[in-house]
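Re: that chain you flagged

S.,

Sorry for the slow reply, it's been a week of failed gels. I finally had a moment to sit down with the sequence you sent. For the record, here it is as I used it:
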Amino acid sequence: MSPASLAVLLLLAAEPVPVGPAAAGLPADPDFRIGPGDVLEIEVVRDPASSGRLVVDGRGGVEHPLLGRLEVEGKTCDDVRARIQEGLADGFIHSPRVIVRIAEYRSFRVTLLGDVREPGLYHLRGKTGVLDLALAAGLSGTVPSGAEVVRVLPDGSVQRKAVNLAAVVKGDARDVTLERGDLVMLGGSVTAASGVTVVGEVKTPGVFQLSPGETILGVVLRAGGPTEFARRNGTRIYRGGQPPIEVRLADVLDDGDRKKDVPVSPGDLVVVP
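Prediction finished late last night. Pasting the structure tokens below so you have them in one place:
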């Protein structure tokens, strides 16, 4: 790949990914835990200078115009409201009244592929099961019996959970509650064995069919490229029962070190943590 072609691919990868159409139809959890990328709407009654929208950065914090940096990752809107209200009351505003809402849910990202009318990336607003997401996305036929959730654990390892949705509908089995970054594959239209599955901090996780001689750089770029929160040099390839292959993806992308690019094979699982 020439430097010019790589630049074009990186520019395309930087384009924002639209929120999945099912996100708005799923319920919002009042105990939703805030994460990087979420947009908070802060309203301080009768004080517009202290109000506004704040984006949670990659380190899990926001910059308030009066209080400075506030760590909000893992907290609820009520937690953040109490923190801001306490801070403003300490020498800024007498008896402040603060309202905190989530204006845009961006941190709880899951990818849905397979037998649904609208596959793609979804930004969820709280606890959601596989069946709830599938129904909200619109099944392309009857409820598929087979589903799989691919999940990247905090230590970088991968967990696969099988879900029998037909049994869930009948009440004979429990659904799987989704977590941030999950990849959900429904039915038989997704053939991970013949392609490469890319999950983690990429803009459009999914299963990609291979071209001859394709490398990890190519499949990651086809997955939209790394997000701003990705630890690119911690990228791993899982291949069968072998130990994971470590890839310094930042060296390939930023420095053009193609010697560190790695060929991929059908059935590989690529994790960008």
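What I noticed first: The radius of gyration is 21 Å.

Talk soon,
D.
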